[in-house]
Write a structure and sequence with these properties.
Layout lengths: L1 E14 L3 E8 L3 E8 L12 E7 L7 E8 L4 H4 L2 H17 L9 H14 L7 H13 L9 H4 L3 H8 L3 H6 L4 H19 L7 H8 L2
Parallel strand pairs: 3-5
Antiparallel strand pairs: 1-2, 1-4, 2-3, 4-5
Helix pairs in contact: 2-9, 3-4, 4-8, 8-9
Length: 214
């Protein structure tokens, strides 16, 4: 049986010389992996890319094959920027770590797609975007924090975090912070997410963002 689906790319794993496993998120399947033939056009599988694809369901295998992949959005604003590309790496790594294989969160795919398009459209002042995104992710996963919820995780940094919680999107993007401050705010939110997800969230790409936005 062949069905169509829209998929968001989280990570890829090479299998031999001729195949890739795509770790994806979708509104139909939640977090699920698929296999594709490796070849030209590897840019299609960059993290947080959104594809339309045909899924070839196979009752004899849990790893279904994809064909006819096409990028839904060009994402020129992201792919032409080292900083935005780095943010999408961070976003995809967070989702890959906290959304377990086989898990389904109602509305998560649609929220992720809107987030990607928002980042793509921003022309300036987006260095704080990944922190805002983490806050919004809490809500998308069902445990949006009030300021008191973050006290055990924020420690001495709570006044700054409390101020951020009171800002709208525009004010949040314009809030002055250096790379270390952004890294600290992001780590507090990752610890909060990890607590509610019952896992330790270690994100390697966070160090890259600290250096980029110092």
């Amino acid at each position: 049986m062949i069905v169509s689906s829209r998929l968001l790319i989280l990570q890829t794993t090479k299998v031999g010389d001729k195949s890739l496993v795509l770790h994806t998120l979708s509104s139909q399947w939640g977090r699920r992996s698929f296999i594709v033939s490796a070849g030209k056009g590897m840019a299609m599988y960059l993290p947080m890319n959104i594809l339309d694809a045909e899924i070839m369901q196979n009752e004899k295998s849990s790893l279904w094959r994809l064909r006819g992949m096409q990028a839904v959005h060009p994402l020129n604003g992201i792919r032409s920027s080292i900083g935005k590309n780095s943010i999408t790496l961070f976003m995809s790594e967070v989702l890959y770590r906290i959304v377990r294989d086989g898990a389904f969160e109602e509305g998560l795919f649609e929220w992720c797609e809107r987030s990607v398009l928002t980042l793509d459209a921003l022309e300036s002042d987006w260095a704080n975007f990944h922190i805002w995104w983490l806050l919004e992710l809490c809500g998308a996963l069902g445990f949006s924090p009030c300021s008191e919820d973050l006290v055990p995780f924020a420690g001495q940094h709570f006044p700054k975090l409390q101020r951020l919680l009171g800002l709208g999107f525009g004010g949040f993007m314009l809030e002055p912070m250096n790379g270390e401050e952004r890294n600290t705010m992001a780590q507090i939110l990752l610890d909060y997410i990890g607590f509610h997800s019952d896992c330790k969230v270690e994100i390697r790409s966070l160090k890259v963002l600290r250096e980029l936005f110092s």
